[in-house]
Specification:
alpha+beta; single chain; about 200 residues; two-stranded antiparallel sheet; rod-shaped; Helix Hairpins
């Protein structure tokens, strides 16, 4: 760490830095608060989607109890072919956005399967879509949590370390300059007294 210079130039520099930190801190703290609000929205959205998923699974079990019939082959009726994700930047945090899900439907003969298989495929797709949406939202929340932690650390650094440190430096320089000024005045008076004393001889 560089040694603190005890002069007026350094005093001006320290005051300028303190002013910058004090101006930056409120916007940084506001960002932290906004991120926390976004986390609350994300949590709420996840809970809502998980409730929808649970309801859909229960509803499917009630409407289609025949799915339990082991003799009917239902494997591979529906598969996720690919998922397209985008990205949005909120408060400097890059968050994933679900754009599209492409599905692969296994073709089957209408007469070879019971009539309710069509309903089952629709419900399987709804369940899978909700699961994908929940996964994307979980990733969004994870990134928001990480950004909030980093921002909170920076807020603490400014509040508890950098701003108090600058104030200490300013105080130290001011005390040194005041002492130096007093010393100069005293020396000046002594020199003046000596000069006057010599003149009276």
């Amino acid at each position: 760490m560089a040694r603190l210079a005890l002069n007026k130039t350094e005093l001006h520099k320290q005051r300028k830095q303190l002013n910058i930190y004090q101006q930056f801190l409120p916007s940084l703290d506001l960002k932290r608060q906004h991120l926390m609000a976004l986390i609350a929205v994300s949590k709420s959205l996840m809970e809502e989607k998980k409730a929808q998923l649970a309801h859909l699974i229960t509803q499917s079990g009630e409407r289609l109890p025949m799915v339990a019939n082991q003799e009917i082959d239902l494997s591979g009726l529906l598969k996720v072919q690919d998922i397209t994700l985008g990205e949005e930047n909120i408060l400097g945090v890059k968050l994933p956005v679900l754009i599209n899900v492409n599905w692969h439907f296994r073709e089957y003969a209408l007469l070879a399967k019971p009539h309710w298989v069509d309903v089952l495929v629709v419900q399987l797709r709804q369940v899978a879509e909700l699961k994908i949406q929940i996964q994307v939202e979980e990733e969004r929340k994870r990134r928001l949590d990480s950004a909030t932690r980093r921002t909170a650390q920076r807020v603490n650094l400014f509040e508890k370390v950098m701003i108090p440190s600058k104030r200490q430096h300013i105080k130290k320089i001011q005390i040194f300059l005041a002492d130096t000024e007093r010393g100069d005045v005293v020396r000046s008076k002594i020199a003046k007294g000596k000069h006057l004393g010599k003149g009276s001889l």
